[in-house]
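To whoever is on call:

I kicked off a structure prediction for a single chain this morning and the downstream step that reads the tokens threw a length-mismatch warning. I double-checked the sequence; it's 411 residues and nothing unusual in it as far as I can see. Pasting both halves so you can look.
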Amino acid sequence: MAKKGTGVIKQILKDHFAGFWEFHYDRFPESYRGDIKETVEKTIRCGTRDMGYARYECLGCDGNPSPKFVCFTCKSRFCHRCGKKYTDEWSDKQQEMIFDVQHRHMVFTIPQQLRNIFYEDRNKLKELSKQVAEVFQYHNYHRSNKRGLRSGIITVIHTFGRDLKFNPHVHALVTEGALDNQNEWRSSGYIPYEYLRKSWQKVVLDLLKKWFPGNRKVNELIDDLYRGYPNGFYVNAEKKIKNANGVARYIGRYLARPAIAEYRIEAYDGETVHYWYEDHHTGKRVDKKARVYRFLFELLQHIPPKHFRMVGRYGLYSRRAHHKAQQILSLHAFMRTKQIALLLETKRKKKTYRQRMIESFEHDPFQCPHCQRQMDLVGIWHSDYGWIYHYMEDTEDVKKWREYGLVQQTG
């Protein structure tokens, strides 16, 4: 029986993915089955020499210490190890670009009757994100079409609920205010729930008409959904976040989070997975036991297609508008507080593997245990490209390796 904690999901994948995929691959949309398979296989190999590695040695050291191998990672958001690293680095980077104003976190949901449409075609989820931005653009227009109000909107697409069922929805972080066409910041105040829900319902159902023009069954479904949801589709808009640091951390929680955190898996005995989740409505813990193939399906259905963009930026956060808006809002912040640092752009450098290890474990992974000097990089091997660097590249031995195909050309 596997112990609760780190590595249990990777162990489940190692034990059962090949058999599961042989019998159940056709349960996933054909258009990106290959992406799912590739993602899982990379996750299984993540952090092993099979993926590739950088080799470090202490050249000329009398102690003859063992070489240090730094294995490559899969860099997949599905992987618990890489997903956390990606999230941490992404959150740090966002603090540079998020406006230091109050934001509101909202969740835009999809009724159960429509979820299978997005299961079969994940690209339709991208259009959902755009429609979330449209809801706020409509609101700004109705507030004052002469002022040309523009809010900042960041969206993150999610497909899973706490119980691992397929439940597509969009998390949105929206500035609690907008710039007008005179570059003045205007507080937005409260956006009525009724407006959010009914506007969201309309833009989603209008998408259905666009995707399935003239389809009688779809038109009947649209009519049923208007009757069945007279108050509009559910939107949660309760959470306020006051500053840029808080916004960056909050988005990070939702960006690369795997469908289930490993601490929620209580036990795995090779055949059954015991996990728990907190019920969204009651707040109580629910324990669930699933056969391992069922658990794998629940997990793998949330792997997005390759190159799928989870995050959307609209309005003031769009690439075209962001830099100018940041300058204007920094100036406003300076006028309020007289803090010169708010006018200066700061760039955060990406932390190296060595820095992360020293910070986390107070241990320098590249320090020779014998002479205490820093080890030398002597080679880099990649699973797809072979040897792409070796410190003896110009020696006769390596030239022979290249001749026999043991080392690939790097030029």
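Update from on-call: the warning came from a stale cache, not from the record. Cleared it. Sanity check on the structure: Confidence is low (pLDDT under 50) at residues 337-344, 404-411.
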